[in-house]
Amino acid sequence: MFDQPLSPPPAGARRRAFTAVGELADVRSFAATEARAAGLGDRKVERVVLAVNEVATNAFEHTTHGCIVTIWTLPRTFVCQVDDNGRFGVPPVRRISPSSGRGHGLTLVDEVADLVRRHSHTGGTTTRLHFDRP
To answer: What is the pTM for the complete model shown?
Structure first.
């Protein structure tokens, strides 16, 4: 039921490739600029930036080619997609515990985005983040 193929982004989607962890500031800037242009308020922009940064960070830490961030808007939704060449397994269901250290970023992403879809395929993993917009 989960991990189903996703439809391709629309033709007008904005896309940028990032290859190194040193580009995380650019990833965040790209996400923030596009979120503001889509009419999202400051709190929602912060959520977008947090989620995109976390997924991109995982791509830099766990894959070999960085990631591609693709962003578009739908009538009531702002969408950020992060593609990388890594494979994503089924994550364990668990609560975030402040004392347990690292490893909770994707759980946090699931909490700040309005909808998260992930699909592992032969080319890697696609993570699509949906945020409601006015």
So the answer is: 0.88
Give the full edge-to-edge strand order of the sheet including 14-18.
14-18, 67-74, 77-84, 124-132, 115-121
Q: Is 121 strand, coil or helix?
A: strand
* Beta-bridge partners for 67: 18
Asked if residue 2 is part of any domain, the answer here is no
| CATH code for position 114 | 3.30.565.10
- pLDDT band for position 93 (50/70/90)? very low
**pLDDT (tens digit per residue) in 67-77:** 999 999 999 99
Structural domains in the chain (count)? 1
Q: Distance (Å, rounded) from C-alpha 30 to C-alpha 52?
A: 10
